[in-house]
Amino acid sequence: MFTKRFILKKIGQMLLHVIFWYGVLLFYTYFFGVDSSDFSYVKSFSFFLMPITIATTYVFIYKLIPDYLITKRYFLFGLYSLYTFIISAYLIVISVFYGLVYLSNFEESNMAPISKSLLFVGIAVYLVVIIVSAFKLLKLNLKHAEDTKKLETKILETQLKLKEQELNYLKMQIHPHFLFNTLNTMYGFALKKADETPEMILKLSNLLDYLLYQVDKPFVALQDEINHINDYIELEKMRFNDTLQIHFKTENILEDMQIAPMLLLPFVENSFKHGSLKKGVLQVNIQLRCEGNHIVFKIENTNTNNETSEKGIGLENIKKRLDLLYKAAYQLKIDDTTELFKVHLELDITP
């Protein structure tokens, strides 16, 4: 099947060449037949020019242009083009003498008027060469542009796959990290046989559903992230009892606003995990507001350890995810002092 298709393609190309050169022959016959009634002379002179034109044209389109011009070997292209021009010009001179000697019997008056001029004969030949060469150059440039576009598309697809794999890797890091901390909290309640254990299991169930199923989505509703932050806060309230003072304030949350899943929750988790009790109390303040398509998220907690930002996998993970998902559309500022640990995130989620 492949061989048959290849043969048919080659036959089609040959037919196109034959038709084209037949058209060139008609052009020569008409051009050199101006002001001449000797059709036999014009036909013979045109036939004599055809091999010169074909040879010169094919040298340019199959050798000089693809091997030297396209590859930017300009010196060799110019040098070999000059050689080709000299040889073809010599053959054009021979054609004029052919018309004078063999077709007119040394009688210049018997020659077709235009065929007497080397200039007009050269123009006729090189006009065909230039037109065909220009078409060949255009075709090669279009092919190069198409190949470049395919390569760019392939590179882009590869980059997207790498980005997707990195994001999946980061999500896989979140799963055990977050799950371990939450199960550890529930384990403590189970040991104490606390009455809050059933409620804690329900909250944990909601969080696990979000963690295991919703987090694989590229985006979730911002309200879903807020709801699971609230569930996590309730779990921590049970663990800290009276040693926790937390305020979570939201403003202007739009129903259709979406965000990458588990983008804000790790910051909240980090504030509980690495926050320090001050005068027997851990203070956490969280603010989340929307300004059009702009999200402003602030969180601060009491702190007595300057290494807070270096601990755990959460913050480094979230920075990488922000770089991959939002690139230049976010600003993240982290202040780590002996008194407070502050996070200020501004996120532009314009569609």
Explain the overall architecture.
With 351 residues, the chain is of the alpha+beta class. The protein folds into two domains: 2-153, no CATH class; 194-348, Histidine kinase-like ATPase, C-terminal domain (Heat Shock Protein 90, 2-Layer Sandwich). Helices cover 64% and strands 13% of the residues. It has helices at residues 2-32, 39-69, 74-103, 118-192, 197-212, 222-240, 265-274, 314-325, and strands spanning 220-221, 244-251, 258-259, 282-291, 294-302, 330-336, 340-348. The chain has a five-stranded mixed beta sheet, with helices on one face. A two-stranded antiparallel ribbon has the order 1-3. α3 (74-103) runs antiparallel to α4 (118-192) and α5 (197-212) runs antiparallel to α6 (222-240). It is rod-shaped and about 125 Å long. The two termini are 49 Å apart. 21% of the residues are buried. The model has no long low-confidence stretch (mean pLDDT 83). The chain crosses the membrane at residues 12-32, 44-62, 74-98, 118-138. It comes from Algibacter marinivivus. Keywords: Kinase, Membrane, Transferase, Transmembrane, Transmembrane helix.
Supply the helix-strand structural class.
alpha+beta
Q: Which runs of at least 5 residues are low in confidence (pLDDT < 50)? A: none
Q: What is the fourth-level CATH superfamily of the largest domain?
A: Histidine kinase-like ATPase, C-terminal domain
CATH class of the largest domain: Alpha Beta
